[in-house]
Batch of 2 targets.
Target 1
Amino acid sequence: MRECIVIGKANVGKTLFAINFADYLKVTRLNIEFATPSGESYRRVLSVPLALQELISDQPHHTLGLQRIEIQMPGVKGRKYFALVDTSGLTEGIHGETLIRRAMAQTLAKVRDAHVILHLIDASRSGQVGAIEALGEVDWQVAQFGAMRTGYAILANKMDLKEAQNGLVQIRREFPGHVIFPVSALLKTGFEEVKQFVWRHL
Ligand SMILES: Nc1nc2c(ncn2[C@@H]2O[C@H](COP(=O)(O)OP(=O)(O)OP(=O)(O)O)[C@@H](O)[C@H]2O)c(=O)[nH]1
Ligand SMILES: [Mg+2]
């Protein structure tokens, strides 16, 4: 099955985006396959409100491992089946905790094979502290990798927060030539453009 992977640094909103995007694509019961960095895997079926309650946190590295949601995407010309894969937050350099290092390796292995890569960046943070401070080396590396492929887009997230407007300007300046969609994972804005992009590249 074709895969669309959601990656980015910790706390940028990957899990909220994945759940709300699935909801936007009319998936009401999320059939999620969890794959932990230590090699176990299991499945859970969660309603959207329960998934939001359990899987999102304001603490970084809440997601440890891969969370794969199978989706039938409705479009003008029928449906497309794909897996939306939420991942652990990327870190700068080598993280001190073994589990987080393993989770990061697991994420990077998945990126290689994905058909679509949605790279989330917290635009509100770039708007507050400046792009150079908010974006890590890891964001540039991901963008460089993405530049070599089709199906790669940057999602400037948290556009509902006021600092994000300035952040978006900075992200556009730092990543010229890339496809960039401003979104709010919280309010589900910008999702139609992302849906069309995913549809085209699956
Ligand atoms: N205002 C606002 N808050 C958001 C948005 N997206 C995510 N958040 C908040 O940001 C925090 C982190 O969200 P998550 O979805 O758990 O972030 P993540 O990237 O999955 O984090 P890790 O799993 O730890 O890597 C939570 O407090 C969310 O409510 C958004 O679009 N707007
Ligand atoms: Mg998460």
Target 2
Amino acid sequence: MKAATVSVIGRPSAGKSTIVNTITGMKVSITSPTPQTTRNKIRGIYTDQRGQLVFTDTPGYHLSDKEINKRMQDVTVSSLSDSDMILYMLDGTRTPGKEEETIAELVKQSGVPVVAVVNKADILSAEKTEEAKAFLRSHFPDSAVLSASAAKDEGIDEVLIELFRLAPEGEMMYDESMYTDQDLEFRLSEIIREKTISSLSDEMPHVIYVEIEDMEYSEERKEVWVRAVINVERDGQKGMIVGKGGSNIRRIRKESFAEIRRIFPGSKLNLDLRVKADPKWRTSGKVLSRIFR
Ligand SMILES: Nc1nc2c(ncn2[C@@H]2O[C@H](COP(=O)(O)OP(=O)(O)OP(=O)(O)O)[C@@H](O)[C@H]2O)c(=O)[nH]1
Ligand SMILES: [Mg+2]
């Protein structure tokens, strides 16, 4: 039996979280069209008769000096050499530039075996796919270079075949029924963050963090209480989350409610959502340490 850990690496919006969700068949990691959605290492576990692959989804690697971006770079770089293999995701819709070169070099220097994938093949011309593959082949001449669509689940079986080919023999690390190792509070806060992001314009997602203030679950009464806070940076930004007459926060609540309920089948869910301003959280070491724990 094969067993391996796989770090999923690439630029923001390459489709790293999408491929982890497609492979596990579960919503393990939140996704959005806005770059830099993933902020932590998120584990997704895939098991079949060949063995077990434990994926670590990472924040997209983005060249920037901002404190929060540096934290995210640290998360990514630290997971490079942590794993048995790297699944390198490249967004074929964007021509590789300095950022892509930097990541390719980091991956190469780690010395960890690589499977490289040109993603979003569903919307690429054959020429563009070839161009992206050529870039990957030039950096990883000894590795498998594939194209796939993580969103459409095309070419993913081939990605798994290559990963299992590289994987060492070993024992399963998790029970085969497990698909993630995230704690409940984190999953809930991520679901609420995703629903909040999807209602906002480009810059806003970065000013948000979600905190679960209180959570109680009564197995006996089949009831769950969750109180969460959507934090923004300035008072003036609260209105955008709340929306006209509360319309947006109601929508965020409704969508979060539907998804959180799936985690507690058969239980009554009470979800209380609040919006607060926490100025400068993005530069506060205390808050950042809580988020990037
Ligand atoms: N057309 C197409 N879109 C895709 C594909 N894979 C991902 N996307 C879209 O690309 C966007 C980014 O996907 P994510 O999975 O969130 O990307 P990510 O690499 O995790 O991004 P960060 O967490 O920000 O680093 C989303 O809107 C996805 O729906 C694909 O195969 N085809
Ligand atoms: Mg992501």
